[in-house]
Design a protein that fits this description.
heterotrimer; A mainly alpha (about 325); B alpha/beta (about 500); C mainly alpha (about 350); A: about 325 residues; mainly alpha; ABC transporter involved in vitamin B12 uptake, BtuC; two-stranded antiparallel ribbon; 15 helices; 2 strands; about 0% strand; C: about 350 residues
C-alpha cells in the first residue's frame, strides 16, 4: 500500500508541503487569536470550505489533464436557479434533474473542445456565456426565494447531524469519491497520463477524447452540486449566486499543488488547497487584517503558496 | 586548423566519446561515419558548443578554445546544420537567418527589415537558392529549409575573422535524392569559403562528398583514411567491427512462423504516401519493411496502428476486416506499437515505470471496475524481472531510466496488454550495442511465443538479420519480397537494388 | 545502412535552384494563408449582416459609437497580445487597470482629496502599472512559477490595493482634461480615447514589426528552447513583455477613469475574459508564436461590432452573452488552423 501511494503521488515531500503550510497557518492564526481554535469556529470554516472545495474538485479533474474550466461559476448559478424553480414543482426530483443539467453542460463543453479542437479556455468561457444567459432568462434576473414548502426538501443540506453541518459530510463524500476516481479508476489514471504526456497516452491506445469529455462533465456536474448546496444554505436561487467563486476555486486547486499544466496533483491536494484558502480568508478577519487589505494579503499568500508548493522538477519550460 | 584532442564524454554512465582525436583542415570536407550510438552526434554537439567535453580539449589554429555555448562556437567560426532542424517555423526566412543577430540592422531601436532582408538574400545567394526572405519558414519544403540552415551558417562569415567550419549533422536524412544532389553541389562549391564536417549514415554519400573520412565505433575513432583510398565495404567492415557475426541477431533462434494468418493487407493505400500494398503476416513471423525515406514505409507502419487512416484497400486482423482511424482501435484489436519517438510517443516520462507498463491495459476488478493497485505493482515487478529492466524500483520515473531500459518498458507495456501483433518502428534507434542485443533477444522471445512483428529497422543488416520475410518498398509501391529464413537470407545488395 | 544512388561528382555543373524546384511552396499552403485572414472576413461578414438587418448600423454616429466602445478593449488586448504570443497568459488585467484608474482619480482634481497633479498624475499612475507588470514578469521568470498563477495572485493584489487606497468607496474625477479624453471629439470625429487607442496600436505594431523585442517575442513563442540556443535573452524579453502589458493596462485605466468620470476598485470587472477572447478571436493562438496586434484589432472589432449589433437588433441583454458564446465558438472554429495542432489544451 505504501508503494502504491507513492506511485500515485510522485514525490512524497512535495505532497506534504501544502499540509505543513495549512497546519502552520492554523497555528499562526490560533496563536494570534486563540478563539480561532474553538470547535465551533473550525466547523464554520469547514462548512464554508465545502462548497468552494466541491467547485475546486470539479476543476481539478479538468486541470489534471491539462485543460481549464471557466464555466463552473455560471453552471453553479444556473443550477441554483433551476433548483429554486423546480423544488416547488417536482420536489426531490429537482436535485437529480439539476445535476443532470450540470453534467450535460459539461459534456457539451467537452465535446466541442475535442471535436472542434478549440482551446478549453475559450470553449468553457463560451459555455459560461450560454449558461449565464439561460440563468438570467429563467430567473428573469431576479433571485428566487424558496418558500416554506420547498425548504422542507433542503433539510439534507441545512441539517446538523451530530452537531456537525451536513455540508461537511457532503464535501467529505465528494472528496472520497474524487480520490477514489483519481487513484483507483482507469479514468483517473488516464487523466493524469494525458496531462503528463498526451501523445504517449494516445499512442498507448487510450481513448483520450472520452476521458476529456468525462472530466468536463464531472467538473460541471460538481459545479451543479455546489450550486445546489449554496441554494440550500441561502434558501434562495439567483443567476449571480456563484459569481465570485471561480477564482478562489482555481486558486484552491493550484495552492494545493496540482500543476496548472496537468499531470501532477489530485483531489486530495485540492482538499488541502481549499482549506488553505478558507483559513486564510476567515483567519484574516480573526486576526484583524483591515477588510480592505484582505485581498492583497490573499493574493500575496496565493503567489507565495504556489512558489512553495509547485514541483519544478517536472516542468522544463515555464510558460 | 581545428583539432579535437583526447576528448571524452559520458552521459549517465554511458561512455559516448572515449579519447577521440579528429582534425579538420582548411577548405576540406571531413566525413564522419559510424553506426547509431557510435558518438557522431555527441562529437558534433561538442564542436557546436552544445555540450562541453569531460576530458580533452579543442584547439583552433593551435590555441585551446572553450566553447561554452552555441554562440561562442559561432564567434569562433563554427556553425551547425542540425539533424533536427533548428529553424523557427513561425518566423520568416530572413528573420531566422539573423535571429539573435539583429543588432547590426538596428538603428534607434528599430530593425531595418529591408536591409536585413537584403543581407539575407545575399546569404541565400551563397547557396544559390532563390527564396524570398519574407517567406514564412513553415511554407518551405524540408529541402529548402535545409538550404536556409546552410545560408544561416554561412552568414557567420561576416561576423568572424576566423575561418568558417560548418557542421552538417545528417543533413540528408530528410531530403529527396534530387535535393541531396543539389546540397552536395552547393557544399562542393562552398569549399573555398569554408571547411565542412559531414555526418551521414549513408556510406556512399560520405564517399562521394568527403575528402577525408573518420570512422567511429562505440565512442572511439577506429579508422581514418583518404576518401579516394577506401570503399563502401571496407568502411562498413570498420564500422561494424570484427566481433559481429551472424549470432548477433540470434539467427539460430529463428524458427519457422506458424501457418495461421494474423494480419493481411490487400491493396492498402494512403493517398500521397503509398498505394496497393499487399502482405500477409503469420503468427510468430517477423516481417521487415525496407525502403528509403519517402518510399512510403513510414506511413505504412503508421497506418497499421491507426495514426494515418487508410484511403482505400482492405486490412484484416485475425480474419476480420478493420478500419483503423485512431490508435485506440488498433490497440483494441491487439496491435501494439513501439514508436521511434520513444520519449514523446512511447512513454509518459514523468510518470512511474509501473504506470507506464499498465497504460495500455490496466488490471481492473471485474466487479467494481477499479484498478487493482497491488496487482499492478505485482505485474510491473514481474515485467521488470522478465525483461531484466534495470531500475531502482517500479516507482522510479521513466525519466530516470536509460534508453535501453525505457525501450523495454515500452515493450513491457504492449506485452502486458497481450498485443499479439507488434509494430516496431526503429526499435533500436539511439540504443548502445548491448541494449540492442537485448532487444534482439526479446524479439526472438516474442516470436517464439507466437507474437507477430512488423519491423522497420534502422539498418538493412538489422532487417535481414531479424526477419522471416522482407518487403521492399520504393516510391510508395512494393518492389520486391524476400524470404529470409536462416541460410537463405538475402544480401544487402539484393535489397538495395529494389530500393533505389 | 540505407544506401542511395551515389550523387553525381563535383563537376556535373551546379543546377540553378528556384524555390519551386525544391518543393518550395505548394498550393495547400496558400489556402492556409487565406485562412489567416478568416477573422477579418468574419468581421466584414458580421458587419454586413448586421447592417442588412438594421441599416442604422452604418450611420456615422453609430460607427463612432462602435469605435468608442472598442477603445478600452483594444488598449487592454494589445497588452495581452504580446503575453499570449509568448505562450503565457496574464490574468492581472482587472487588478492593474483598477490601480491605474484609482491612482489617476485620486491624484488629479477630485472630490475625495486635495490633489491636483494634472497630467503628471497620469504619468505616475501608468508608471506604477508598468511596475506591477515588471513584478509579474520578474516573479514569473525568477521563481519559475507559471504566469497563470503569478498573474492570478496579482489580480487579487491589484484589486485589493485599489480597494485599500480608496477605502472601498468611489471617487469622482473633476479634472476637465481627463474627462475631455472621453468627451471631446476633435473635428467632430472620434473621441480622443479612440485616438489614444489607435496610438497604442501604432506603437505596439512598431514594437512587433520593427524591433528586436518583437522578433524575440515570436521566437520565444515559436520555440523557447531554440530561441535560447540562438542567444536570445529569453528572461529579459519576458519581463519586458509583462511590463509593456502592465503599461497598457494602466493606459486602459486612464481611459476607464475618463469614460466613467470616476475611479473605483471594481472598474475593471469583466475585462479579463473579454480581453483574452478578443485576442483569440482575432486569430492569435494561445499556444504562442502565431498572430499579432493587427489580429487583435480585428478581434476587438468583431467583439465591438457584435456587442453593438445585438443592441441594435434589440436582443435582450440576458441573451447577449449566450449569443456571444456561440459566435465565439463559431469564429474560433472557423479561423483556427487545427490541422497543425495535434494537441489542444
Amino acid at each position: 500500500m505504501t508503494a502504491t501511494k507513492s506511485l500515485r503521488a510522485g514525490g512524497r515531500v512535495q505532497a506534504a508541503i501544502p499540509i505543513v503550510l495549512l497546519i502552520g497557518l492554523v497555528i499562526l492564526i490560533g496563536v494570534l487569536q486563540p478563539s480561532f481554535l474553538t470547535a465551533d469556529t473550525l466547523l464554520v470554516v469547514m462548512a464554508d470550505t465545502a462548497t468552494l472545495f466541491i467547485l475546486a474538485a470539479g476543476i481539478t479533474f479538468v486541470v489534471m489533464l491539462g485543460g481549464i474550466d471557466l464555466s463552473i461559476q455560471a453552471v453553479a448559478s444556473l443550477s441554483s436557479v433551476l433548483v429554486a424553480i423546480w423544488l416547488g414543482r417536482i420536489g426531490y426530483w429537482a436535485f437529480p434533474a439539476t445535476l443532470l443539467v450540470g453534467f450535460i453542460t459539461g459534456a457539451f463543453s467537452g465535446v466541442v473542445h475535442v471535436r472542434l479542437r478549440i482551446p478549453s479556455f475559450i470553449v468553457t468561457l463560451a459555455t459560461s456565456g450560454l449558461v449565464a444567459a439561460a440563468a438570467l432568462l429563467l430567473s428573469q434576473e431576479r433571485s428566487i426565494t424558496i418558500g416554506e414548502a420547498g425548504r422542507a426538501y433542503l433539510s439534507w443540506i441545512t441539517g446538523r447531524p451530530f452537531g456537525v453541518p451536513s455540508v461537511i459530510f457532503i464535501g467529505a463524500l465528494v472528496a472520497c469519491a474524487g480520490i477514489w476516481l483519481q487513484c483507483y479508476t482507469p479514468f483517473g489514471r488516464y487523466s493524469a497520463a494525458i496531462g503528463a504526456g498526451e501523445a504517449a497516452t494516445w499512442a498507448s491506445g487510450v481513448k483520450v477524447n472520452r476521458q476529456k469529455v468525462i472530466a468536463y462533465s464531472l467538473s460541471a456536474g460538481l459545479a451543479a452540486l455546489a450550486g445546489i448546496l449554496l441554494t440550500g444554505r441561502l434558501s434562495s436561487g439567483s443567476p449571480t449566486l456563484a459569481n465570485e467563486l471561480l477564482l478562489p476555486a482555481i486558486a484552491a486547486v493550484v495552492v494545493g499543488g496540482t500543476s496548472i499544466t496537468g499531470g501532477a496533483g489530485g483531489i486530495g491536494r485540492t482538499v488541502i488547497g481549499a482549506l488553505i484558502i478558507s483559513v486564510v480568508r476567515v483567519g484574516m478577519t480573526f486576526v484583524g487584517v483591515d477588510i480592505f487589505a484582505q485581498q492583497i494579503v490573499f493574493g500575496a499568500v496565493l503567489i507565495l503558496a504556489v512558489a512553495i508548493t509547485i514541483d519544478r522538477t517536472k516542468i522544463l519550460i515555464v510558460k | 586548423m581545428l583539432a579535437v584532442e583526447h576528448v571524452s564524454k559520458a552521459f549517465a554512465g554511458v561512455q559516448a566519446l572515449d579519447d577521440v582525436n579528429v582534425e579538420i583542415g582548411a577548405n576540406e570536407v571531413v566525413g564522419l561515419v559510424g553506426e547509431n550510438g557510435a558518438g557522431k552526434s555527441t562529437l558534433m554537439r561538442i564542436l557546436a558548443g552544445v555540450y562541453s567535453p569531460d576530458r580533452g580539449s579543442l584547439k583552433l589554429d593551435g590555441a585551446q578554445v572553450l566553447l561554452k555555448s552555441p554562440r561562442e562556437a559561432n564567434l569562433n567560426g563554427i556553425g551547425i546544420v542540425f539533424q533536427e532542424q533548428s529553424l523557427l517555423l513561425n518566423l520568416t526566412v530572413g528573420e531566422n537567418i539573423y535571429l539573435g543577430q539583429e543588432a547590426e540592422f538596428t538603428r534607434l531601436g528599430l530593425v531595418n527589415r529591408r536591409r536585413m532582408n537584403a543581407a539575407a538574400r545575399r546569404q541565400l545567394a551563397k547557396v544559390e537558392v532563390d527564396i524570398d526572405p519574407d517567406t514564412r519558414t513553415s511554407e518551405l519544403s524540408f529541402a529548402a529549409r535545409q538550404m536556409v540552415e546552410l545560408a544561416k551558417a554561412l552568414a557567420l562569415e561576416e561576423r568572424t575573422e576566423k575561418h568558417l567550419i560548418i557542421l552538417l549533422d545528417e543533413p540528408t536524412s530528410v531530403l529527396e535524392q534530387r535535393d541531396i544532389e543539389i546540397l552536395f553541389a552547393r557544399v562542393r562549391a562552398l569549399k573555398r569559403r569554408a571547411s565542412f564536417v559531414f555526418v551521414s549514415h549513408r556510406l556512399d554519400e560520405i564517399l562521394a562528398l568527403s575528402d577525408r573520412i573518420y570512422v567511429m565505433k562505440d565512442g572511439r575513432v577506429v579508422g581514418h583514411m583518404e576518401a579516394g583510398s577506401t570503399t563502401v565495404p571496407q568502411l562498413h567492415q570498420m564500422m561494424v567491427g570484427r566481433d559481429r557475426h551472424a549470432e548477433y541477431y540470434r539467427e539460430s533462434r529463428q524458427g519457422p512462423p506458424r501457418e495461421e494468418i494474423v494480419m493481411e493487407a490487400r491493396d492498402l493505400s494512403v493517398t500521397g504516401a503509398y498505394r496497393k500494398v499487399d502482405f500477409v503476416l503469420h503468427r510468430g513471423e517477423v516481417l521487415g519493411i525496407a525502403g528509403v525515406v519517402g518510399s512510403g514505409r513510414e506511413e505504412l507502419t503508421r497506418t497499421l496502428f491507426g495514426f494515418v487512416p487508410q484511403s482505400s484497400g482492405t486490412l484484416l486482423i485475425d480474419g476480420h476486416e478493420v478500419r483503423l482511424t485512431v490508435p485506440s482501435q488498433a490497440a483494441d484489436h491487439g496491435v501494439g506499437y513501439i514508436p521511434r519517438e520513444r520519449r514523446t510517443e512511447g512513454l509518459v516520462l514523468s510518470l512511474p515505470l509501473a504506470v507506464n507498463v499498465t497504460l495500455s491495459k490496466l488490471p481492473t476488478s471485474r466487479i467494481t471496475g477499479a484498478i487493482r493497485l497491488s496487482r499492478e505493482i505485482q505485474l510491473a515487478k514481474s515485467w521488470v524481472d522478465k525483461l531484466h529492466i534495470r531500475t531502482p524500483g517500479v516507482e522510479a520515473l521513466c525519466l530516470n531510466l536509460s534508453g535501453g531500459n525505457q525501450q523495454k518498458v515500452v515493450l513491457a507495456k504492449w506485452m502486458n496488454a497481450r498485443a499479439h501483433i507488434l509494430i516496431l518502428d526503429h526499435p533500436t534507434r539511439g540504443l548502445d550495442v548491448g541494449a540492442k542485443e537485448e532487444v534482439y533477444e526479446l524479439i526472438r522471445d516474442l516470436s517464439e511465443e507466437g507474437v507477430s512483428i512488423i519491423l522497420t529497422a534502422d539498418t538493412l543488416e538489422e532487417t535481414i538479420g531479424l526477419c522471416h520475410s522482407i518487403l521492399v518498398m520504393r516510391d510508395g509501391k512494393v518492389t520486391a519480397r524476400f524470404d529470409a529464413s536462416p541460410g537463405r537470407k538475402p544480401s544487402q545488395v539484393d535489397l538495395i537494388q529494389h530500393m533505389v | 545502412m540505407e544506401p542511395r544512388k551515389v550523387p553525381p561528382s563535383a563537376d556535373s555543373g551546379t543546377p540553378q535552384i528556384r524555390s519551386p524546384e525544391l518543393g518550395g511552396r505548394n498550393a495547400k499552403l496558400s489556402l492556409n494563408r487565406l485562412k489567416r485572414y478568416a477573422p477579418f472576413f468574419a468581421l466584414i461578414a458580421l458587419s454586413l449582416l448586421i447592417g442588412a438587418m438594421n441599416p442604422r448600423f452604418f450611420e456615422f454616429n453609430n460607427l463612432i459609437r462602435v469605435a468608442n466602445s472598442a477603445s478600452i478593449p483594444l488598449v487592454l488586448s494589445l497588452g495581452m497580445t504580446f503575453v499570449i504570443l509568448l505562450g503565457s497568459i496574464d490574468l492581472s488585467v482587472e487588478g492593474v487597470l483598477a490601480i491605474g484608474a484609482v491612482l489617476i482619480s485620486l491624484l488629479v482634481r477630485n472630490n475625495g482629496n486635495g490633489f491636483d497633479l494634472g497630467w503628471s498624475a497620469v504619468v505616475l499612475a501608468i508608471l506604477a502599472c508598468s511596475g506591477i507588470g515588471f513584478l509579474n514578469g520578474a516573479i514569473h521568470v525568477g521563481l519559475r512559477i507559471p504566469s497563470f498563477m503569478v498573474t492570478l495572485g496579482m489580480w487579487f493584489i491589484g484589486v485589493g490595493v485599489a480597494t485599500l487606497i480608496l477605502g472601498g468607496s468611489t471617487v469622482r474625477v473633476l479634472d476637465k482634461g481627463i474627462r475631455s479624453i472621453a468627451l471631446d471629439r476633435p473635428m467632430g470625429f472620434f473621441p480622443i480615447a479612440v485616438w489614444v487607442a489607435l496610438g497604442a496600436l501604432g506603437i505596439t505594431w512598431v514594437i512587433e514589426r520593427q524591433t528586436r523585442i518583437g522578433r524575440y517575442i515570436y521566437a520565444i513563442g515559436g520555440g523557447e528552447d531554440l530561441a535560447a540556443l540562438s542567444g536570445i535573452p529569453v528572461k529579459r524579453v519576458k519581463i519586458i513583455v509583462f511590463m509593456i502589458a502592465g503599461t497598457l493596462y494602466g493606459l486602459g485605466g486612464l481611459l476607464s477613469a475618463a469614460q466613467l468620470g470616476q475611479g473605483n476598485a471594481l472598474i475593471g470587472s469583466g475585462r479579463l475574459f473579454s480581453t483574452v477572447t478578443a485576442v483569440v478571436v482575432g486569430g492569435t493562438a494561445l499556444t504562442g508564436g502565431e498572430g499579432g496586434v493587427l489580429n487583435t484589432l480585428v478581434g476587438v472589432m468583431i467583439m465591438a461590432v457584435l456587442g453593438n449589433g445585438m443592441v441594435l437588433l434589440g436582443i435582450s441583454p440576458d441573451v447577449q452573452q449566450g449569443v456571444q458564446g456561440v459566435l465565439i465558438i463559431v469564429a474560433v472554429a472557423l479561423s483556427l488552423d487545427r490541422a497543425r495542432l495535434k494537441i489542444v489544451k
